Amino acid sequence: SDTDWSEKRNVAVFRGALTGCNRPNFAPKINIYDPTNITSADCRSIMRCRLVLTYGQSEFIDAKFVTAKFYTPYGKGMLPERLDDAVMVGSRMSLEEQLSCKVLIILDGNDIASGLGWGLMSKSVVFMQRPMYTSWLMQEYLEPWVHYIPIDHDLMDVEEKMKWVMEHDTEARYIAERGTLWIYDLLFHADAEKDNDLIQTEMAHRYM
Fold this sequence. Notes:
- The chain has helices spanning 40-44, 47-54, 95-98, 116-121, 158-167, 169-188, 190-207, and strands at 9-16, 61-65, 69-72, 75-78, 82-83, 86-87, 101-105, 125-128, 149-150.
- The protein is of the alpha/beta class.
- The chain has a single domain (5-190), classed as Rossmann fold, CATH 3.40.50.
- Strands 2-1-7-8-9 form a 5-stranded parallel sheet. A two-stranded antiparallel ribbon has the order 3-4. Strands 5-6 form a two-stranded antiparallel sheet.
- It is globular.
- The mean pLDDT is 86.
């Protein structure tokens, strides 16, 4: 179950796997299962890895991978336990534990971030970059500072945005609530049900 905003911790949380490893400079480094081959420069070239590495010492950002293993088109590899004194892999967190935090950091991996839907539906506020992909969530119509709090592509402003949340508690809560309304309208509004019926009818006609 979710936690009321007033009882959530002033923490921005990320838990996930190292996906999005489609960088050519990883190719010669991951053909053997040797974590010593991965450098901080390699890590910073991949968005999720950059987040974990950059905020490894942050008081307000709890960003960790749930496994050291990662996979790419070139093969498989393993992250080192530490990079630049940042702990790369942390304990898994249940959904309830993540929802005890005021901020959920949602980053795309190989494709659309799978956690965006439940993140918006929650009572926490979502940090995300401007969407590059679309899905049934219609990400391209989400408005920054209305449905989510935007973070820069280089991720260097995440702690700054977390401090903004702490200093603007009410405004951040309103953004979280509007994100929730977006999802509820998509899933439960009467018009959404009609749209779904039309889609299913059209699909049935095409395959009959």
